[in-house]
TrEMBL record:
This is Phospholipid/cholesterol/gamma-HCH transport system ATP-binding protein. Residues 307-364 are annotated as: Disordered. Residues 327-342 have a biased composition (Polar residues). PANTHER family: INTERMEMBRANE PHOSPHOLIPID TRANSPORT SYSTEM ATP-BINDING PROTEIN MLAF, PROTEIN TRIGALACTOSYLDIACYLGLYCEROL 3, CHLOROPLASTIC. Residues 6-242 form the ABC transporter domain.
Amino acid sequence: MTGVEVKVEGLSKSFGRANIWSDVTLTLPPGEVSVLLGPSGTGKSVFLKSLIGLLKPEKGSIVIHDTDLVRCSESKLYELRKLFGVLFQDGALFGSMNLFDNIAFPLREHTKRSEAQVRDVVMEKMDLVGLKGDENKLPGEISGGMRKRAGLARALVLDPEIILFDEPDSGLDPVRTAYLNQLIIDLNAQTDSTFLIVTHDINTAQTVPDNIGMLYRKQLAMFGPREVLLTSDDPVVAQFLNGRRQGPIGMSEEKDTAQAAREMAEVTELDGLPPLKPQLEAAAGLPDRKAVHRRRERVMRMLPTLPPAAQAAIRQSYTDRRGAASQHGSSEPSWPLSSYELSETALRGRHGHTTAAPPGTRLR
């Protein structure tokens, strides 16, 4: 499996007179893990359903392999859907089927493989998600976390290029959520598929993805590399990603402007910019995630355009990561990455002054 780019341009969706979101534009980079956040009711699950053609947007395009899913024929859409694997909130398992038959269902429905071949694939995916030996159990006989993993195994059996996760951590305790997050990272390391996760879990958003997007007030507030959003001074993004009460978001979507301004002044005085949480790494013995290398190259090109505090926080996080990797004997690449060396021009800020180069930077 290799991930594919998903390019969304000017997407708008309504139900009758109720507009869900408008003019959503983003690109899911191939092979990277992206997270979509937003307050409840902002249409995150609607966005996932639009991506796979279950809902038809009124405007815009969703381009995969040079084909627009919004305007293509039904037969073409049917074929493109085979590129997707979907993990639904509750696993969406058939209650009358055991786990083996649930996971085998897409193979029997969409392929002509023999039962021996089906068994090989199903057992491989069950082993991958830690369910080997549980194939004869019914969904009602297992825990919520196991149902999530069974749903994930089913999403993987057709070797999809794009995997969508609709609130995979809903209903799970923090320990099971941590295990699931690690599983997502490990799967990405092994498959290099494109992942999109809808979640409300702040720890997941801070530690799992390569990219973060946020829906707010019927718009896409921001989308980009994790380092950029985690150091953003945008009031909405900063409030949500830090789980603060203070900010523009209120219990009923939006606060009074004057109240939000008072609260933001209070946050600025007391808190400042929090340090970046380290991103989860693939388990020992698995290949390095290619997505990390691609994302960091992109961040380095963007760095001079970011506010000074964000630049400093990003440099510090990379320096800390490299130091931790050296201490543990990891193969973590030097910073910046060998495939992208910062030139003296790239280190210049918007006002023409040269910022301090991070340790190990080679100037050309």
